[in-house]
Design brief:
This protein has no helices and 3 strands. By secondary structure, the chain is mostly beta strands. Strands 1-2-3 form a 3-stranded antiparallel sheet, with no helix packed on it. Strand 1 and strand 2 form a beta hairpin.
Length: about 60
């Protein structure tokens, strides 16, 4: 697959939002969520090691 920007469920064509799911103390799964229908996709993206998994409010654009 070269490009994944169309939702397989509702065919929304403008890309995805991301979410982060903590699997254990050292690994976070990065998932894609369709902003139109809410379908989520786990395409195998992972980040590790995770030192802090507590979101902090940052600068707004």
């Amino acid at each position: 697959m070269e490009d994944f920007r169309i939702c397989l469920s509702c065919e929304y064509e403008r890309g995805f939002h991301v979410s982060f799911h903590k699997r254990d103390d050292t690994e976070v799964s990065i998932r894609l969520i369709c902003p139109n229908c809410g379908q989520s996709y786990d395409i195998g993206w992972q980040e590790s090691p995770v030192k802090l998994f507590k979101p902090k409010k940052g600068t707004q654009y």
